[in-house]
Amino acid sequence: MTQWVENPSGGRDRGAAALARAWVEVLVRPRRLFRSGVAPGDQAPGLVFAGAVVLVEELTRIATGAAAYPVLSDQPALSTVLFLALAVVLVAPAALHLTAALQTVILIAAAPDRAGVSETVQVIAYAAAPCVFAGLPYPGVRVAATAYASVLLAVGVSDVHDVALPKAAVLTAVPAALAFGYGFRGFAALSEVTGLTWADVAASLA
């Protein structure tokens, strides 16, 4: 699952410029990126991409005062750096691989011609591109960013795992909810916009 290869067949170029190109491409031409930029075993660019998205999102939250990291030993600056590093280097890759594992389990029965777990990791990583805006203090922007990320995940799964787009939308619903609804706080933003909570939803269904 965590294999990196030195000379992959296809995949993305390395470096900051390639990272920026991939971000723009997945936003405006997602099918092109998913078809040409996702390669078996080539997780390195995808993991770096996901880490960069989380870094920008969390730095935005810090700059706007939305982040509330614990303060250790009366060192707020060092504590912020520490928890930011943990979020980017540890939490983001772990969450990415767990979400990819869940997505793979969902795909087992529904997509017999599916690609491998490595490709799923890359798809989820690139689908998170709009979430660079999820740290902004505007609930509507956060809802739009996480919703678009969910759409990109469905598109990526459709292209990479060879399933119809409507079917891919269903198959990616739970992973998208976890990664973007909870991970990037899309549901919390939606609650701010609509005034509805899960308790309200549950009560309406009762």
From TrEMBL:
Entry GO terms, CC: membrane
Broad class of where this protein is predominantly found: membrane
UniProt keyword Transmembrane, yes or no: yes
Keyword field: Membrane, Transmembrane, Transmembrane helix
Localization, UniProt: Membrane
Topology in the lipid bilayer: Multi-pass membrane protein
UniProt key word Oxidoreductase: no
Transmembrane spans: 81-110
Domain Yip1: 25-180
Protein's recorded name: YIP1 family protein
Organism placement in taxonomy: Archaea, Methanobacteriati, Methanobacteriota, Stenosarchaea group, Halobacteria
